[in-house]
Amino acid sequence: MRWLSLLLVFASIAPQRSRAEVSEVRISRGYGILYLPLFVIEDQKLIEKHARLRGLGEVKVTWQVLDGGNVINDAMLAGALDIAAIGVPGFITLWAKAKGNPRLEVLGLSGLSATALSLNTVNPAVKTLRDGIKTSLSAVVLQMIVAREFGDAQYAKLDPITVGLGHPDAYAALSSGGKGGVNSHFGSPPFSILELDQPGIHRVVSSVEALGNITLDMVYALRAFHDRNPKSCGAVLAALDEAIGIIARDKKAAAGAYVRASKVKVSEEEVLRMLADPDTRFSATPDGVMKFATFMHRVGIISVAPKSWKDLFFPEIQDRPGS
Predict the structure, then answer these.
(1) How far apart are CA 127 and CA 130, in angstroms?
(2) Once rounded to an integer, what is the mean pLDDT over residues 57-69?
(3) Using one digit for the tens of pLDDT, what is the confidence trace for 265-292?
(4) Multiple choice CATH, 23-115+214-317, 3.40.190.10, 2.40.160.20, 3.30.1330.30, 3.40.50.300
(5) Which of 189, 194, 258, 193 is nearest to 217 (CA)?
(6) Sheet of 83-87, strand order
(7) Where are the domains of the chain?
(8) Which of 148, 193, 244, 270 is the most exposed place for a label (fewest CB within 10 A)?
(9) Cα dist. 219→170, 204, 283 in Å?
(10) What pTM did the predictor assign?
C-alpha cells in the first residue's frame, strides 16, 4: 500500500512538472527576408509541434512584429517578450549592458540569417561611400563599413545625418524619389532588391563587399527565461533547424509562407528571386558575430567584450562551428 501511495503521488506530480514551463511563448520577428525561418515556423506551427514532442502539451505561440534593436530590447526588458529575433549589434549592446545582472542577463539561442545589406540611393551624385556623407543611414554595419573606409576614429562620421526609420517606411521614402528628405536607405531584402527594380535608384555599397557574409540576425532570450524553460527553448531551436531545412530543400514553400505571413507587398516569384541570391543564407550556427563584438568594443560602443562567440550563446548551440 505504501508503494502504491508513492506511485500515486508521483503520478500526480508528473503532469505538474511537465506544465512547469510556460504555456505560451511570446516571440518577435521583423519584416524582411532575413526573418524567413520565423515566417516558416509561424506558417507551419513548428514551435507548437516541437513543444508537443518534448512533452509540453499544447503551447500557445504569440507573434509580434517589431523593428529596431532598441524597440526589441525594450520589449524584452519590459517583460513583453520571451524570445526575440534581432540584429547582432542590438543583441551585443544589451548583452554587454546586462552582463552580470541575473535578472536582465541575455544570451543568444541561435544564429538566423545572413545577406547583403545594401546602401541604395536616388542621389545620382553618390557613387561611393566617400560621396555619401549627406545620405541618411542608421546601422552598426554601416559604421563598420565607414570605419573600414575612413578609420576607426571616424566610425560615427555619418551618425549626425542618420534618420531612424523602419524598413517599410524607408522603402516608401526612397520609392517616392527622396521626398521628405530621405534619399538613401541602408537595408536588407526584400526592400533593398525591390528598390533596385525602380528607375533612378542605384546601389552604393553592400555589407558583403566590405565585411564578408556574416550572421546579421539572431535569436536571443533572457537567461532567466531560458533556465526556467529549457524544453520550450529547445523547441524553438528545433523549430528553427527544421525551418532552415525546409528553406534549403523547398524554397517555393518558404516563399509562400513569407507572402502569406508578411505585410510586404511582394509576390512569390519575387521572393524566390531573392532566395536565389547566394549572399542570402540561413543557419542557426552563428558566423562572424565576433567581428561585431570586436569592432563595437574597439570603438567604445560596448564597455565589455566577449572572449569567444560562445560567451554570447547558450550551451545548446555551442557544439556547432560558430565564430
Answers:
(1) 8
(2) 92
(3) 889 999 999 899 889 999 999 999 999 9
(4) 3.40.190.10
(5) 189
(6) 60-65, 24-29, 83-87, 217-222, 106-114, 281-282
(7) 23-115+214-317, 118-211
(8) 148
(9) 24, 29, 11
(10) 0.81
